[in-house]
Write a structure and sequence with these properties.
By secondary structure, the chain is α+β, with helices and mostly antiparallel strands. It is built from seven helices and six strands; from the N terminus they run αββββββαααααα. It starts with a helix and ends with a helix.
Length: about 230
Amino acid sequence: MPLTHDEFNDEVDAFVRDVVSAAICLSTQGWRLDVTMASADRLRSVVDMTVPLTGGPNCKSDDTLAVLTANYKLCVDSYGTHIAVEHSSFVLKAKVDRTPVIRWDYDRDANRKPRSHVQVTAHRGALSHILSRLDHPTPHSIESLHIPLGGERFRPCLEDVVEFLIRDCGFEGQKNWKQSVREGRARWRRIQTRAVVRDSPECAVTELESLGYTVTPPADGARSERTDRLTAW
């Protein structure tokens, strides 16, 4: 059954609680959260959060070095049964001159760029200033930062890099490269989908049953979640 207005906003409430839980990991005070709930005639919601970032032995407890902003645009999924993220953007900004440092972006309907991508917008000065204040062992070495991209299961595939080199950088692509990249990416994601199902079989069962499938559990009982895989960084 399609989501009703009230059900959509209930799911938004649960989503926001997860956002708040993540924000509290960074700061228990000083952060801002704005939520626009869905209207009766439009199942769309916007979540904006700003979190001040402090820390390091050379910092006062109230000395904000940077801010993390998070923006989500929420809609219904393609089945109309759950909320989905239409767009998300996480931006680390240096407070010293409001300079963007790193962006983690996702666009559900992107055409000319990867749907999920990282942009390093920092120049060495702004980022090094922050790392120095945090007593980082190599504040001038940007390559010492390891930017997460979805872990073992949701990491980019080689086809994603190939398309980046052709589309974004301007390298020459060979004949039929688009079709080859699309087919290779689909094969990769099907492999990863199967791996994710093995990690969390009960989630797969629940989702399949919601689509009308009948799932018969194995004779020796349901398999446990592989929490080590699901929680790995």
